Each structure stands twice: as C-alpha cells, then as structure tokens.
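User: Please predict the structure of the protein below. I'd like the answer in structure-token form so I can feed it into my own downstream comparison script.

Assistant: Understood. Taking the following sequence of 318 residues as input:
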Amino acid sequence: MPAAETLTPVESTLAIALFAAFADGERCEPERARIDRIAADLGWEDLSSISRRILMGKLSLSEAATGLREAEEREAAYELARAVCEVDGDISAEENAFLGELRDLFALDSERSRHLDDEVDSFALAPLAPVAGSALETPPPLPVAPPDQGGMILRYSILNGALELLPEALATMAIVPLQMKMVYRIGKVHGAELDRASIKEFLATAGLGLGSQMLEGFARKWVGGLGKKVGGKKAGKIANQLTGSAFSFASTWAIGHLAENYYAGGRRFGTAEMKAVYEPLLAKAKELHPRYLPEIQQQAQSLNPATILDYVRGGREV
C-alpha cells in the first residue's frame, strides 16, 4: 500500500469507512475475514492492507484522511462513515465518539454536520414496517410463481441492481435498508415479528455483516477507478457500474430467498446450514442478472433521490 501521504481520495474514503466498521470495538476475526474477502473479490489487496494497518495501530485517522483535500470529498467520507456506524439503526457510544473525532478532523460546523446526519438518518432510521394506516401496512403474500418469474424478492433485487447504476452515493446507501425491509416483510408473512437487531442476527448467522455489506457496495462503486481500464474511462465506468449492479442484484436475491427458507422453515438453520444455502443462491442470482438487466436499466431511469427515499421510507411499494 502507498504511504499515507499519497493516499488517493478513494483509498482515504474507504480507510475512513474501515475505521467506522471497527469503531464499535468489534474488531473480530469474522469482520476481518469479510473485509479480506471483499478485497479478494475486487482484486484490490490494498483494502486488506489498510484494514491490517488500522487494526495494528499503524494508520491513524488523520493519516487516513490525507487524500481528502476537497470539502465535498470529506463530506462524502463522513456520510459513508455515519452510514456504516448506523446501518443497524443504532450508534454506540464508541461510534458516536469516533464520529465526533471525524467531524473535528474535517472541521465540519454544527449546522453542516447536522444536515449530513439528517440525510443519512433518513435512510438508516427509516421504519422497517410501512407507516400505520398506509396502503402498504399489510404486506401482500409471497407469490407462488417461481422466483425467477416475478415476486417481491425479484422486485427488490431489480431495484437494488438499479440503484448501483446511479452515481449518487445515497443511492448505494439505500441498498442495505431496502434489504432489511425485504427480510422484514418475508418474516412477517411467516409470522415472525422482526426488528433491526433480529435481522442483523439473521444476516450474521449467514456470515453477512451489515457494515461490511454497505462497505462492499461503496468499494465496488469506487475501486473500479483504481484498476486498469480497457476501452477508456467511459467504458471502465460503465463496466464498473454493471459489476456493482450485478453484485447488489445477486446479494439481494440470495438474501431474500435465504430469508424465505429460514423463516418458512421455523428458523431452525444453524450457521453451517445458512452458509450452505446462501452460496448456491448467490451463484444462481449472478446467472440471473443478465436476464433482468434491461429491467434493471429501465428501473434506474425512473429513480431520483426523492423516489429512492420514498422506497426506503415505505411510501412507495417495491
């Protein structure tokens, strides 16, 4: 990895996101293993190197931020860090202290930081259940059609795949909250009353951390700019967007069908069984992505920040 003084904006942003992932003190081996897997999938060893340097105390937060020279870059990094801290709907005392240190480091005034916090909160703290009295309060039953021919899980997968085709960081930030809402709806169909903590536990049992899920989405969106491009910058950007779209589509589809298996089966799966079910589902979903790419691209054309927030808050049905 390059010295701290030569960090690029992308490297600095992801380093700060890693600090956020470790801020709650859960510097456990599974979290480290997930980050190493993300780095391997992306072909970017520097992500693992940054992670190791942070855990070993060889990279400070101020050093990690050296690549962020523009106010817009620092604000984007702060939003990502808060999103990682708040992805499960709660910010611990340790995470709150970390975010305060980050605000001071970036010299964010109270008014600006409050605006950024509210922007992230509108996604991370959106209710899992539809607003009482709305037409969406009672979820429809899961369809009996095969999963590759329609249904709620596929609609969420197409929507999340479409979000990755958009340039806005907040679009990527919406993916994990939408996955949680999907799991909530599946659980409710099978008589399970879920909250963020129980959904986090469900995903952790399958080896999926909420923080690393969000980190992976942003890493896939940005790291493509560090690698070699074939066909010029524009072609590289398109290729990277499609890679991110395929990842979000596949992970949402696999999580949805894993949840269907898990809650329909009375929540009797252990960690080994969950992982054994999830991996084939993920592989199947990756094969499905090209088939649904035209629908994903069409969905992306209909999205803007207001409609995205409406989906996350439950005012618009997926």
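That's the full token string. Residues 127-313 form one domain.
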